Every structure is written in C-alpha cells, then in structure tokens.
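fyi for ur records
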Amino acid sequence: MVTGKDAAPPKPCPDMLHEVGHRLERLADEKPFVGDLLLDFVAAGKAQVSFVACRGDFGGSQRVTSHAELFGLIHRLREKKIIFPVP
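which gave:
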C-alpha cells in the first residue's frame, strides 16, 4: 500500500502511482488504478497508467460500481483478455 505519506506532492501529481509501480514491478497495462475522484483520473493520465472509475464516469474510462465488477476486471486482466486504456 502507498499513501500520501510515501510520495509528495499529492494527487494529481503522479508520484504516488509511480511508487506503486516501482514497488509492484509491473507495467502500466498490468496495474490499473481504481479511483473515485477526477483527481484520481488526472493522476492516472499523468502517470501513464490505466484507470478504472469507481462509481464515477470520467470520459471513456473503465467503470465499476461494485467490488464484484472490479474483481471481474482484475480476473480478465490476469488472463490478458482486456486492455485498460490509459487516459
């Protein structure tokens, strides 16, 4: 887990998302960022990582409204059946 204490300045600066990628050693298309704020969407774009909107609609991004939907997206990602667009 990475929090605001691990990276500064705060979102929409992409530093926190870069730190997550570094810790997980994953590529941008393998670690979608789930967020519920426009700041989250902007941070994902700046970090060049894919974004999944939780209970929001941010212009064409993937969207989930429940944990079950999110788990389904993660499962399909692991099977490489979907590609998350980078905002």
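The radius of gyration is 12 Å. thats all i got for now
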